[in-house]
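Hello Y.,

Per our agreement to keep a running log of every chain we model this quarter, I'm adding this entry. I've kept the format consistent with earlier entries: sequence first, then predicted structure.
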Amino acid sequence: MKLVHTKTELDQLVAEAKSAGQRVGFVPTMGALHEGHLRLVDIAREQADFVVVSIFVNPLQFGEGEDFDKYPRTLEADCEALEGRQCDVVFAPSATEVYPPDGKPGKPTERAGIIGSTFEGSARPGHFDGMLTVVARLLNLVDPDVAVFGQKDAQQVFMVRKLMDAKFPQVELVVAPTIREASGLAMSSRNRYLTPAQRETATVISKALRAVDFAAKHGLPASFCIEAGHTLFAGEPEAKLEYLAVVDPQLFKPVNDKFKGEALAIVAARVGGVRLIDNQIIEIREQDA
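Predicted structure for the entry above:
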């Protein structure tokens, strides 16, 4: 495994791989890697012969008052973790490499549109514009054949799919299932900020999603499914619910009570000041007669 910091170094390695007929896989991250990230690397290896993992904390997707300066930067530990996986290159660029010539990102060059102002976009204005801008930049830098993203960030995946369909049709998008801790809590770099008691509290997030799924399987309409999830949060006052919704995965818009078929239950909550998100694919079935 090689650690590189510049486009020049990366270009040479990717060019060598492609000239050897190898398919290039790419996993973009902001570091602070956990088992969920490492599973993305495993999936990239299943899809490609040569795997690049980027580690770059993107200032453009952090809003005012968010945790950009506090976001964990653990490059040495991340590289050690990746040594145990089949990763060929770790690309850890400076801001100047990603946003030339001076490392100042300026205004986003990609726009998330109306959906980018809902749910996570409403809570974090401008986040998706910044995220899409860096994804586009990294895809241009790495030039992969396949890119792997995690399902945990469902709205991000929706946006990235739109971006790639429009501007990177040559790159295959693979969406990896969410990796969970034994408790059901979705793995996240922010979980490290939770105390043991808060980790237990945070399990209400996945429990609420399972309650939504259970209601959907029994043919209850979307509003009743959502209410089932709210009931779980009502019993856990230390978890502050921000939103719980059921959306059409093709549109990322809330469904009405007439909707039947595959949908996506999405949730965001704060536990001890740590903001966590999760989601689950569900199927709203016809109610048994």
